Amino acid sequence: MDIVHLVDCQPFVTKDGSIIRELLSHRNSTIRNQSLAEATIPIGARTDSHYHPKSEEIYFIVSGTGTMFLADQTRRVVPGDAVAIPPSVIHSIFNDGSEPLKLLCCCAPGYEHDDTVMVSEQLLADDHGIGFQLINEKTG
Predict the structure, then answer these.
(1) Is the pLDDT of residue 55 over 60?
(2) How far is CA 135 from CA 58, 117, 120, 124, in A?
(3) CB burial class (10 A; 0-12, 13-18, 19+) of residue 61?
(4) Distances in Å between the alpha carbon of 124 and those of 16, 65, 128, 130?
(5) Going from the N-terminus, what domains does the chain have, and what CATH number goes with each?
(6) Farthest-apart Cα atoms in the chain, separation
(7) Burial (Cβ within 10 Å: 0-12, 13-18, ≥19) of residue 59
(8) Cα-atom radius of gyration of the chain, to the nearest Å?
(9) What DSSP character marks residue 137?
């Protein structure tokens, strides 16, 4: 039986800049086809925009508040919200709250750095406020 407590998980920084503690994955359990991690986004921080060609993700907001960017959609997220992130969809999350934003992240297949593709951002002002245009760094 695999039971892992959060305090026993060493934090590390992923390619998108979030601080995670991987709870269960093929690296530390009998789990083979998914992973579960707690991610922490500091106050005022935002993960770098990215996508995963193979993995789909679920973000479950545990504490704090933020703004979720998913493809061309933007939405406020609060504790209790679950966000579905399909494979190959560009996404990012911004902690615009007053406390660290903590979320559980489930990836299937399990998280791997090699399945994370970073993209660059160009902030654009439009008639509806601030938006952003994403450009894949590989194509410039």
Answers:
(1) yes
(2) 24, 11, 6, 13
(3) buried
(4) 21, 24, 11, 6
(5) 6-136 (2.60.120.10)
(6) 55
(7) buried
(8) 15
(9) T
pTM of the predicted structure, to 2 decimals? 0.84
Is 69:130 a contact under the CB 8 Å cutoff? no
Lowest mean pLDDT among 18-22, 57-61, 76-80: 18-22
Greater confidence (125 vs 32) lies with: 32
Q: Single out the residue of 31, 87, 25, 85 nearest to residue 54, CA to CA.
A: 87
Measuring CA to CA, how many Å separate 133 from each of 49, 65, 122, 123?
11, 23, 5, 7
Tokens 């938006």 appear where?
131
Task: Determine the average pLDDT of the residues in 113-129.
Answer: 62
Query: CA torsion, points 124, 40, 68, 66, in degrees to nearest 10?
Result: -90
CB 59 within 8 A of CB 44: no
**Predicted pLDDT at 126:** 39
Instruction: Please give the Cα distance from 13 to 67 (Å, whole number).
Output: 20
